[in-house]
Amino acid sequence: MASFVANTQIHGYSVGKGPGRGSKRKGTGKLGTCLFILSAILCSPPFSHPSFAQSKKAAELYKKAVDAVAQRQMPEALELFHQAVERDTGYTEAYLKLGQVYEFMRQPEQAFQVYLRAIRQQPDKPGTGLAYQFVSAYQLKKGNYQAAIPHIQQFQKLFPPNSLQWKKVDRLLQTARFGAQAVINPLAVKPQPLSATVQAFPSQYFPVLTADEQTLVYTVLKPEGDEDLMVATQKGETWGPPESISPHINTPNNEGTPSLSADGRTLVFTACQGRTGYGSCDLYISRKTGTTWSEPQNLGPSVNTRGWESQPALSADGRRLYFVSDRKGGVGRRDIWCSELGDDGEWRAPYNLKSINTPFDEASPFIHANGLSLFFASEGHMGLGGYDLFVADSTASGWSNPQNLGYPINTADDQAALFVSANGAHAYYSQEQSSGDGKQRSKLYMFDLPEPLRQKVRPVSYLKGLVADARTKKPLNATIELIDLATNQLVTRVQSDPQTGQYTAVLPTGGEYALYVVGPGYLFKSLSFDFTQKREGEGLTLSVPLEPIKPADGSAPAKETLNNIFFETGRYDLAEKSRTELDRLVKFLDVNQTVNIEVSGHTDNQGGTANNLELSKKRAQSVVAYLTKAGIAPTRIKSAGYGETRPVAPNTTDENRKLNRRIEWRIL
């Protein structure tokens, strides 16, 4: 699976003028590389003891060839070196110079062949190190790992053990061995292109999606060279036509490398010119209300510096941002950093992911919707050559050791910018392809995540729907919070769209969670999700009607069920995990000081009418006791028990009986 548009923003200074497609490193572009090779041809190779011609005529041709190189007459030099080795087939030094000329003329296959000839002639001589260096790198680039190993081993023998150069060659040897092993143990990966509808531009890359995989945002390269962000929406089994994401975001300058929150309503992207910024490339944020994106705002001096910031990765709830920067204080030149959004709405000073970063470059982080699995590209961790993709998990003790995603997700080519769906089933990426005109093109692909990788990615479910007034059906701006019942800790917090009422919240699997929907002037809605025995992420759609504290039409007072109050069967003492719900009710009563409520207990029809009535009363009293102990005046709370007399569903199934066993609260 070649390339993934691997150099996109990895090297920083874009081809043309934009942030999307990165150029070569500073000082190592085509001109710099050619000048370096030219200098090497004119000077002696960096290894001593060259061979000498046995033929006087060959030596003369060799000298003329070097003079031609000095005059930059490369075709003439090429012919003269060839004549020299024809006169003296054992002239190793001429073969080495010939290989360098082929390198300069960007003919790597020819260079490879003549360097092999030099190696066969003098396999143990230091002067052949130049040939070993090219042959080893060439074979690794081609993915010929097994063939590269003996050449690298011989190359390493030219240096003192544990010297700096010996260690550099040893890294090549480790790469070759790792690649050889990976190739013989491939993963079952079958990439499929996304529909032709979205592949409407010369190149498209850096795809990101919402948690429900219904909205796709990606960077496109237009024929005129402009890069923009496009959005496409899933329509049935295919994608609808792409549209410009917003006139507020796309400009005549270039925009690229988007990152989306799970609900698709917060966007972070990169721009390198045309906007007020702090450095060569900065990160910007925009938020969507209804169908309109806000004017992008620079993320500010905490995130952006005088250096280079790019390749953002936003957490599902939009409160944590990973990105790549070359700022001071890193482990390598380009590192992954993380900033967190404070309660005041400001981004905190970022910290370096020191256990992830290496002295080499890291790139294109992506934080999975589970908030735990960080995918990224790296030159520094052991891989198959160049940039490989890795995954590391956030644990209580820090980040786990990064794991290579394996072959053929990683190959000898550079890989970058992988997006994994919330449920852990699919991965999206971009792949470069050569076209008939010799230019590179990039298309979007998707593949099913192979089972070994799915086992490493904790899937999440998502809950989406509408929040509205239960009486008037008017969409509401509400806060949706997910709480881990085992720890009483906030897992995620999102807002519904104030214009449409739409929301999307990520629900982690493998635990018990309470979901609270809170709007000013309304009773809070509590929902319960038990994923303790569930691994596969599945999406849920749920509309959430909120009851007004004071109905405008003067109708009956509102009531709600406390879905996260827990008792043992036949008992009335509160389970510890009920604290989350009860504390919510305390907070509601503290905020709404004029509100008085009734707390009522209800049971199913199992266990006898009299016993059920008594049990329901005691359970309601337990709740009231908790509230008064928390500081709520007893005069504001009334308790009642109704036993089995007010079922909300027929007592015909276990599920219905569970619904009937409940604690309700209503406004008095």
Describe it.
Helix content is 24%, strand content 28%. It contains twelve helices and 35 strands. The strands form eight sheets. Strands 2, 3, 4, 5 and 6 form a five-stranded antiparallel beta sheet that branches. Strands 7, 8, 9, 10 and 11 form a five-stranded antiparallel beta sheet that branches. Strands 16, 17, 18, 19 and 20 form a five-stranded antiparallel beta sheet that branches. α2 runs antiparallel to α3 (74-87), α4 runs antiparallel to α5 (108-121) and α5 packs across α6 (129-141). The radius of gyration is 32 Å and the shape is elongated. This is OmpA family protein.
What attributes characterize this protein structure?
35 strands, elongated, 668 residues, 24% helix, 5-stranded antiparallel β-sheet, disordered N terminus, alpha+beta, 12 helices
Spans where pLDDT lies below 50 across 5 or more residues: 1-32, 45-50
Helix content: 10-25%
* Overall outline: elongated
* Secondary structure tally, helices: 12
Q: How many beta-strand elements?
A: 35
Which structural class should the secondary elements be placed in? alpha+beta
What is the secondary structure topology, with strand pairs?
Blueprint: H1 30-42, H2 56-70, H3 74-87, H4 92-104, H5 108-121, H6 129-141, H7 145-156, H8 164-183, E1 192-193, E2 203-209, E3 215-221, E4 227-235, E5 238-239, E6 243-244, E7 255-260, E8 266-271, E9 282-289, E10 292-293, E11 297-298, E12 309-314, E13 320-325, E14 335-340, E15 351-352, E16 362-367, E17 373-378, E18 388-395, E19 398-399, E20 403-404, E21 419-420, E22 426-434, E23 440-448, H9 451-454, E24 460-469, E25 479-484, E26 489-495, E27 502-508, E28 512-518, E29 525-530, E30 539-541, E31 544-546, E32 559-562, H10 579-591, E33 597-602, H11 609-629, E34 637-641, H12 654-660, E35 662-667
Parallel strand pairs: 24-30, 24-31, 33-34
Antiparallel strand pairs: 1-23, 2-3, 3-4, 4-5, 4-6, 7-8, 8-9, 9-10, 9-11, 12-13, 13-14, 14-15, 16-17, 17-18, 18-19, 18-20, 21-22, 22-23, 24-27, 25-26, 25-28, 28-29, 32-35, 33-35
Helix pairs in contact: 1-4, 2-3, 3-4, 4-5, 5-6, 6-7, 7-8
